[in-house]
Specification:
The chain has 233 residues and is an all-alpha fold. The protein folds into 2 domains: 7-56; 58-232. Helices cover 77% and strands 0% of the residues. The protein contains 10 helices and no strands. It has helices at 7-43, 45-53, 60-87, 97-120, 132-136, 145-164, 168-171, 173-180, 182-197, 204-232. Helix 1 (7-43) packs across helix 2 (45-53).
Length: 233
């Protein structure tokens, strides 16, 4: 595949770079707000007063981490399922391609953001003592390091595949699709992390979420393979 560099190509690259920079700045600001807000609540009298007013307790970070993790998994499952629907062309005739891809991109980035918040909230967990190293380096944390480590790896892959949306034209459609297959790995790693490390795994609602999304992803993947095979015959 030969790529011709044009003025439009440079403009597309600049736009993608600006989008990436904007996303990174927003993510960094969100992390700083969460870290700074947590420090103020714990270490200042004003923060203590505010925490009492908002009925925040030492278990609040744990509840927040669990909630954010559940929402992040919902968004990831939704992004994976939506991407499969796009690839099987089941919704091609009803939703414009640009809108469909934008929705896929938004779901993916929202999953990244919520996963990041899910991890950062654990810095204030009162039961386990987490550090930034525990949350960014796989397999060294204090709680089920193997399964949590798979979740960390899944987060990095999720960030990579989400980032690829901004450089799809520069990468090329074929290479972008090949890179996007990593989404299956992200979904599998996130599911293993949730099932094996999540404290809500025994909850009926979570079991329905894991089984329901898993079976739907499996069905759509097989449908895509069969449809592709029939299309080539």
């Amino acid at each position: 595949m030969t790529t011709v560099t044009t003025g439009n190509g440079r403009a597309d690259f600049s736009e993608a770079a600006l989008t990436l920079l904007f996303s990174l700045v927003l993510g960094a600001l969100g992390g700083l707000v969460l870290l700074g807000g947590g420090w103020l609540l714990v270490n200042t009298s004003v923060g203590t007063t505010l925490a009492h007013a908002l009925a925040l307790t030492e278990k609040t970070p744990w509840y927040f981490a669990r909630s954010a993790g559940t929402v992040a998994y919902l968004l990831l499952a939704g992004s994976t399922i939506w991407g499969l629907l796009l690839s099987t062309k089941l919704i091609k005739d009803t939703i414009p391609a640009a809108l469909s891809l934008a929705m896929h991109n938004i779901l993916s980035w929202l999953a990244v953001v919520l996963t990041g918040l899910h991890a950062l909230a654990l810095l204030w967990d009162s039961y386990y003592t987490y550090t930034l190293s525990d949350l960014t380096i796989p397999f060294i944390g204090p709680y089920r390091p193997g399964w949590v480590g798979l979740g960390i790896i899944g987060f990095y892959l999720m960030f990579l595949t989400s980032l690829s949306f901004n450089f799809r034209k520069q990468i090329g459609q074929k290479r972008w699709r090949q890179l996007h297959y990593a989404t299956f790995g992200v979904y599998i790693l996130a599911t293993l992390h949730g099932v094996m490390a999540g404290t809500d795994t025994a909850n009926l609602g979570m079991q329905v979420l894991y089984w329901g999304s898993g079976l739907l992803v499996l069905f759509l993947t097989n449908f895509r393979l069969v449809a592709g095979k029939v299309g080539r015959e």
